[in-house]
TrEMBL record:
Molecular function in Gene Ontology: 5'-3' DNA helicase activity; ATP binding; hydrolase activity, acting on acid anhydrides, in phosphorus-containing anhydrides; nucleic acid binding
SMART domains recorded: DEXDc, HELICc2
Lineage summary: Bacteria, Bacillati, Actinomycetota, Actinomycetes, Pseudonocardiales
Protein name per Swiss-Prot or TrEMBL: ATP-dependent helicase DinG
Co-factor requirement: [4Fe-4S] cluster
SUPFAM superfamilies to which the protein is assigned, alphabetical: P-loop containing nucleoside triphosphate hydrolases (SSF52540)
Species in which this protein is naturally found: Prauserella sediminis
Amino acid sequence: MPAEISTLQKTRALPGVRELLTDAVEAVGGTERDGQVRMAEAVARAIRTGEHLAVQAGTGTGKSLAYLVPAIRYAVEQHTTVVVSTATIALQNQLVDRDLPRLAKALKKPLGREPTFAILKGRRNYLCMHRVHSGAPEEPEDSGLFDAFTVSRIGRELKRLHEWSSETETGDRTELVPGVSEQAWRQVSVSARECLGAARCPVGDDCFAEKARADAGRVDVVVTNHALLAIDALQEQRVLPEHDLVVIDEAHELVDRVTSAATAELTASAVSAATRRCGRIIDADTSDRLLEAGEGLALVLDDLPAGRLDTLPQALGGAVTVVRDAAHACLTALGSERKEDVEEATARKLARSAVEEIHDTAVRLVDAFDADQANRPDVVWISNDTYSSSPRPPSLHVAPLAVGGLLRERVFARSTTVLTSATLALGGRFDTLARQWGLPPEPTPVPVDDGTATDKPAPADDADDGLRWSGLDVGSPFDYGRNGILYVAKHLPPPGRDGLGDATLDEIASLVEAAGGRTLGLFSSMRAAKRAAEELRERLPYEILCQGDDSTSTLVAQFAEEPRTCLFGTLSLWQGVDVPGPSLQLVIVDRLPFPRPDDPVASARQRAIEAKGGNGFLTVAATHAALLLAQGAGRLHRSSNDRGVVAVLDSRLATARYGGFLRASIPPFWPTQDPAVARDALTRLDAAAPGRSSTSTALR
């Protein structure tokens, strides 16, 4: 029960969602919008009927309030907990630090008490006081790769962490500013597998992770992330508190985040680290067998090229099998948990955790090749970063080809689910993402809702028939057709494999010059972003920032503060930039953001769909491009006063058969293929921008 409930609360009828939404909007100083009201009412209907809901809500809709108000009302009325899952730390912090505190105060009077909320993350995100007090059990993994300076830096960071441990009340890593490296943090944190458990841990009563979980079980709203939602679905033991309603914000990232959480890696260094953890706990012959297996794996991986594996090479299959069997022997020698002192119990738990991970990954790798290619559950590949700026030895990876089955069985079958984002209706339809989520491709026809529907349908025998869902696009309060232009450079040659051509660079220069800077350049590769930045620094008088010159947050802040500045970069900028106002009036996309042909997961998914008679390109590559393109184009309009041009310099958007699908996924800007029209609009905006006295500058 989230909070103590008075007798009055048990008997009083709570106000309706529409009334509560009006109170909430007034309290936060906002303006009620039609799309926000429609979304809130749709969420309330989903809660009443148990039918899943996908809502596309454009920027400026106020979707956070639209789902929080009915969710909180439900939690208070039913004395239960609802879960809100997000993809990014930024939105998590926005909900917990800004939206929920203001909303809780606004709803206190009409609901009869102040709603409560908490944030919950994976155990690795919290300081482990036992590790702090007992000290690191070993040197950092891959310590042989660290030079003396790095080791010294980690030592300084560990000293800071020890000092911080006596000051922090939450142990949450995000509250440590400035932060520390991953190598240092791993020395003072544990995974769920490594944890002794509160009952056995000598400082279990002071455990930050356990406190966060306990707090989560007592509140109305728990804010978490897609990764923890995936872990909760993957494990038999639940991580999140009991709930029957989950809201998934930034749902366009759900599949990628769940895939990442379900991906495993096997490296020779991990095998070596697991062997060290076994230490003197087991006999030397058994641990040496695992060490030798890891060395054999390293030798085999060194001789193999990077890339996806459609068949398991004999030598690699033998090496992985040897690792699997040696890890099993170590697990047998480690035995089950036994009565021993805390130090010995800790060492045994850490060793078992490391060896179990090695064993389970090796089993999964070997089993991945059992079925024919069309029916394999996993894809396997070798990565080799030895020539990058931060070299790592070759490693084996295994990831699920699809996560729809997992989501269908462990999320949708358990809880009423609301999925929302500014980008869900790709090509104007929800069915593309619905298939990836594991929902039936066609939504359930929505009956006329008179507000009285309360009965949830009985489960059907067929899993798909039992999952009913509806889709709703509530639009955006922004007048995209009046305030924005989509310029497609049809006259440019299609992009090739050699990077940016001279014609494309000339086009970028002319557009940036017309805009007077004020440009966000979204590129398909860091190589292209750097070349464009170097070229334009020679040609134009504006400052050109490039991702990698400094931290991304610092670059975005500088870009926002200095209107005539440009910012060029890759993937994280496509979704992570929120710069309203005159600093951003031109978004440039150098080429359609299809996944790389050598992307192991995307290429394997595409091939599996084609093997079953489907269109792998449209289902995988075009969907990926549509999501990113819509997100990238959305960077232009972050407030109702924003105006500008989205320039796509890939002529395939105008000429290819799939171009219509991609264009239908982008906000409805006024379209043109005339470069002069785009340049003239940017010139007028630049002339009007410094005074910003008028917000009605004509774009065309």
